[in-house]
Amino acid sequence: MNKCNSIAVIIPAAGVGKRMLSSTPKQYLKIQGKTVLQHTVERFCSLSFVAKIVIAVSENDGYIQDLLPKLSSKVTLAIGGKERADSVLAALKALDNFKYPWVMVHDAARPCVLKSDINKLFEQVKRTQRGAILGAPVRDTMKRSDKYNQIKHTVEREYLWHAYTPQMFQTELLAQAIDCHLANQQVITDEASAMELAGYPVQLVEGSDTNIKITRPQDLTLAQIYLENSNNEN
């Protein structure tokens, strides 16, 4: 099986983030004087095992060219698609899977991921040679509702996890899985779901619950706090 001493990272960044109530896509909103995307890229660019970072952007992206000079020389661009899976697949096809047999995929809007957690995920995959994702066990009581927001029943939270990114898999297998599921019009919410549907086992690696995804305006304030607190680590 292919070793994973040197990997590529894909960051899908073609979305607009309508829930942010901003005319600026959320990945280009600023925290501490830097865009969310800059913070996210910087989490990976200093890691020795990350050799290449592919950012998948919208064809009509009007921000990335001004940002590129501020990013690592490891960064290249790919044109993303309508959905996240389309963007990830486009970036995967831009990679040489012989040169980069393993890939991590990470949300552009998760700038608070800890480097220690990225390392933890990488070492787990390197040791087991099996795909894995960062996540965290569910600690709250979970309810399933109907379409009217009435509780139908309480969901047993044992063995339930929040799925985070990055998610790490063999480049060729992930590309094949996503390509197949898109052709069959199957819903893919993350890379792990594509691999699950293809029949591959996926490991869960526990990470910090500060690894939030910025989706609402108030998340920017929380992300700023987490970034300030993680400066000592990074």
TrEMBL record:
Entries under InterPro entries matching the protein: IspD, IspD/TarI, IspD/TarI_cytidylyltransf_bact, ISPD_synthase_CS, Nucleotide-diphossugar_trans
SUPFAM superfamilies: Nucleotide-diphospho-sugar transferases
Top EC class, one word: transferase
Catalysis: reaction(s): 2-C-methyl-D-erythritol 4-phosphate + CTP + H(+) = 4-CDP-2-C-methyl-D-erythritol + diphosphate
Keyword Transferase: yes
Entries under Pfam families matching the protein: IspD
GO BP, one annotated term: isopentenyl diphosphate biosynthetic process, methylerythritol 4-phosphate pathway
Domain of life the protein comes from: Bacteria
UniProt pathway annotation: Isoprenoid biosynthesis; isopentenyl diphosphate biosynthesis via DXP pathway; isopentenyl diphosphate from 1-deoxy-D-xylulose 5-phosphate: step 2/6
Record keywords: Isoprene biosynthesis, Nucleotidyltransferase, Transferase
GO MF annotations, alphabetized: 2-C-methyl-D-erythritol 4-phosphate cytidylyltransferase activity
The EC number(s) this enzyme carries: 2.7.7.60
HAMAP family to which the protein is assigned, alphabetical: IspD
Homology family: Belongs to the IspD/TarI cytidylyltransferase family. IspD subfamily.
Protein name, as recorded: 2-C-methyl-D-erythritol 4-phosphate cytidylyltransferase
Natural source organism: Catenovulum agarivorans DS-2
Lineage: Bacteria, Pseudomonadati, Pseudomonadota, Gammaproteobacteria, Alteromonadales
Underlying gene: ispD
